[in-house]
Amino acid sequence: TVIYTAIGYLNDAPPEAAAQMLVIYILSPLLWMLVAAGLMRAPGPQRLVDWFAVLTVFACASVALYFYLYFRYGADAVSFFFKGQANINLQGGFAGAIMHVYGSLIFLAGGFFSSPELIRSRLLRMAVLAMIFVCAVTSGRSALILAIPVGWVLGRLLASRTVGFQRSLRSPLTRLVKVGLPMAVGMVAVVILLQTYTSVRLDVIYDSFADKLSSGGGSSRVGMAGSLFQGILDNGGIGAGHGKGVSFVSSAEYPWRYELVWLATIYRVGLLGAAVYAFPFLVYILRVLRLAAARQLPPHHKFLFSAFVAAFIASNTNPYIEAFAFQWMYTIPLVALFVEYPAGVERVPA
Questions:
Q1: How far is Cα 145 from Cα 109, in angstroms, rounded to an integer?
Q2: pLDDT in tens, 155-171
Q3: CB-based contacts of 64, cutoff 8 Å, min separation 6
Q4: Which residue in 18, 120, 205, 295 has a CA-CA distance of 20 to 30 Å to 134?
Q5: pLDDT, tens digit, for every residue of 1-15?
């Protein structure tokens, strides 16, 4: 990071960019690693998931408060939620808003739709899942909507690989009726309430979501990707340096920052530098898969891994991983696993 920050500075990157990169890539992750290590000692990873459940309620409540204040008192009443002009789009059956909390909800959605059983209270469990679902479909954020099926699929794939899993003697149909039916009924009830008492239309939201996925994130991101690819080729994959941008400008305030973070990383630090940045995440994923293969994956790590994957996918659409307020999503799961399994796969006590 220091080397490529210096390269960028020598190639006329603004001094502000150099300062930001040192904070974003060195100081900020270090602080979050210290925080995460402390959380692993107290309250511990299992208790931390309980905290996440409570925090999810507050996060979803803040979304409801945002919508209420905006329509009741106007944009100025919710200016403290977001730096910039507050806005809610409720036109033509679509729903969307600008809120920082949606980034955190991507992580929480992936985790709790993967491992809802970790919420011991059935009432709280259904409430958390329903609130996340409502926030997702009214957010206008494709990454948040995608986090729900990503978490659910990973949860099902890893369920039989977790510690304490007891294979049921009941038929798959019986298990589906007992476990899946209540969740399906709850989601259908939420959809009916939304369609009945609001202007939100799920078919409109689904069409918008499908269009974004099929188009690679929309015309803006396609143009951004083209410019970054061209920049990578122009530099021979070696890297132009931190703080450097391409012809496509995503942010007038910070023209060197891009939503396609990993593609922008290859442009800035080259293929080798991007591999160095990605290495800790690759090691983490491989360790989780090794634990799962040995059927030694603790339930709370199933939650953290699924949440991490949802957040990691989202990092390819928005620069969450470069923001201090969101780097905990990428730090806590890794630190939690490395603290508990510093040498790789170890036998989990019965």
A1: 9
A2: 999 988 998 776 544 44
A3: none
A4: 120
A5: 999 999 999 988 898
